[in-house]
Amino acid sequence: MTATIISGKELAREKREQMKIEVEQLKSQGIVPGLAVILVGEDPASQSYVKSKQKSCYEVGIHSELDEVSVSITEDELLHKIDVLNKADHIHGILVQLPLPSHISEKAVIEAINPSKDVDGFHPINVGRMMTGQEAFLPCTPYGIVEMIKSKGIELEGQQVVVVGRSNIVGKPVGQLLLNENATVTYCHSRTKNMKQITRTADILVVAVGKAHFINKEYIKEGAVVIDVGVNRNEEGKLVGDVVFDEAKEVASYITPVPGGVGPMTITMLLYNTIVSAKRLVSKG
Question: Are residue 145 and residue 219 in the same domain, yes or no?
């Protein structure tokens, strides 16, 4: 068996083509979807990611604003900037790029963003709504993962899902979204005993631990769907996932590659959430 590749790159391209049409329709009604990004400091990875977001906004016709601020900005100054964006009618989505400097509370910043503009889906109100199955902005990486699985017509209801990793950004929310789809979800993490026995029960295995090649074929049940969320650099500087791809593809039925898998879908769902936010403005009007 050689696994079928689930290409996030291809799915992202398809979805963005549809988004272009939706943005044009909104513009014909006088609404231009707007995304504001605040970048604190000069972290190269964050700068690269923000640049990708801006380019993607331009591709689909979303208005994009970037506020690059010094790492020495105070928490109060940053919260004031968020407050201004909360009140700005032309901005439908607000994103403060993480991580933040140690003198700024990530919690305070996330909670300062108006939940109706929280297109990252990190605000406790949106998290609570997601947990209870209400309408909410869903966190972009987990949302993208669910869309990737569905794009191949893979059944979720009743499936055994194992999520390796329990971060607030990916692990916990992706498990909740899959639970909302009526899958049976088990979490594994650094304190889990007999992890291999648990992961081998998975019809769908989602790996989000941030450790290069953490999962090899011995952890994977024959025919499982493997979603690799990891983005790591190996000794040669090459991007690799949390899964040993060449081994896993011989066991799995479907697998996501790194790069070109989950990554492109994260930004795509951020754009999607921004467009949804702008549409809500139309429906209110």
Answer: yes
Residue with tokens 């590659």: 257
284: in domain: no
Catalytic-role residue among 53, 117, 221, 249: 53
Helix axes 8-28, 44-60, angle to 10 degrees: 50
pLDDT tens-digit map of 41-62: 998 888 988 999 999 999 999 9
CA distance 31 to 73: 32
- The tokens for 175 are 């498990």
Count the domains in the chain.
2
pLDDT in tens, 233-262: 888 889 999 999 999 999 999 999 999 999
- Residue 9: CB partners within 8 Å, gap ≥ 6? 260, 261, 264
Share of the chain above pLDDT 70, in %: 99
176 is catalytic: no
Torsion angles phi and psi, residue 232, rounded to 5: -130, 155
Kindly tell me the burial class for residue 268, based on how many C-beta atoms sit within 10 Å of its own C-beta (0-12, 13-18, 19 or more). buried
- Pair 246, 216: CB distance under 8 Å: no
Neighbours of 102 (CB within 10 A): 7
Residue 60 lies in domain: 30-115
Per-residue pLDDT tens digits for 206-235: 999 999 999 999 999 999 999 999 999 888
User: Does residue 203 have an active-site annotation?
Assistant: no
* Choice among 15, 81, 97, 203 that is catalytic: 97
| Residue 97 designated active-site | yes
* Same-domain check for residues 106 and 149: no
Distance of alpha carbon 264 from the chain centroid = 9
pLDDT higher than 70, residue 285: no
Q: Choose, from 15, 81, 118, 120, the residue flagged as catalytic.
A: 120
Q: Which residue has the tokens 């201004």?
A: 84
